[in-house]
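Open question from group meeting: does this chain pack into something compact, or does most of it stay loose? Before anyone orders reagents, we agreed to write out a predicted structure and look at it together. Recording both the input and the output here so the notebook holds the full record.
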Amino acid sequence: MFVRSTFRRTVQLSTRKFSTQAPTTAAVSIYNPTEEHLALRQMLRNFVETEVDPQAKEFNKDEKFNMPLYKKLGDLGLLGITVPAEYGGSEMDATAAVIAHEELSAADPAFCLSYLAHSMLFVNNLARNGTHEQKMKFLPGSCDGSLIGGMCMSEPGAGTDVMGMGTTAKLTEDGKHYVLNGSKMWITNGTVDGVSTGDVFLVYAKTGAGRGMGDITSFLVEKGMKGFELGQQIKDKCGMRASFTAELNFDDVHVPVENIVGSVGGAGICMMRNLQIERLTLAAMSLGIARRSIEVMNKYAQDRKAFGKPIGDFGQIQKHIAESYAEFMAGRSYVYSIASNMGLDEVGAGLDADGVKLYCGPMAKRVADRAVQVLGGNGYIADYQVERLWRDSKLLEIGGGTNEAHHKNMVRDLRKDGQIL
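Structure tokens returned:
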């Protein structure tokens, strides 16, 4: 485990362990604003090349979660990348989180999605909103990889309509527990073995009778609590197949009041604060997908020959590659610009958190689609990766907020702000 004060030395050691190649990105810039960020990217680029890329095809094909690889993220300090050092984290910023998700997603978006659900939706959320006692209990194990967590918001009948959730939490007469009843759906890391739940979850439930922010409370629900069970593992997904998705059921689950995160009825602000970094890192995943798709089609266009010359010499192919690069760089600049100003303990970045995801999700899907087109038949099979990236990209227009939800949120915020520049 490393902390911020020793980060540079650790990533240098890690880099030597995984590869001797120089980093592709060689200078401090908006994408690597400090030497520390540059070292992080170099370490991740090498780790992805030697550890993540080789396993991606197999684990996605077989719909398996790579637990040993996940634990290596703990060894590298990535699972607690935004967590204060006193709780076992690396105490880095939003830009570091973006770098991690861009690099991991370039090789295996599904594995990266499980990483995001743990490190952002659970770990960062608890680090920002939990009590000292809750952090001491759950964060060290979550940072070193001995625990795997997630967040439970969506339900079978309530997705974008968060306030329509049906899961309830009722205080017991002795005032010591809340009793949770309901079901949560589409939960990443809901299971990692197909037979039992993950280790610990932040669960949003109704403690009030209305549809307002003050009617929702967040609870820490632990594996093994009576009545907390795996409903089903969701299989045969279009993409993200190496990331396990599940339905989780709550049947009279007694949760001690000590497991309330924040205050009763106070989950709304916790939710809004964490949605900002969630959407930013989901946008970063789209960057990884787009970047790898461009790399694959650019190389293929140089190697593949037709009519006596490389297909990259034809204008139709050049259009696909050039437009993809321009769109990728526009999205990348947007993401890193917002990351550079995002405080993890603050709210107020909702407009652009929605904006980066709204732009980058469809952008990645278009770029992956162009890569498939450039490769032709080879793009339609698993050997060249882009068909998997194409399938994976679709989720980033749905999960963490649909495109339509972003439209609604952004117009609402723009109406409030009036002057935008």
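Observations to bring back to the group:
The radius of gyration is 21 Å.
The longest helix spans residues 267-303.
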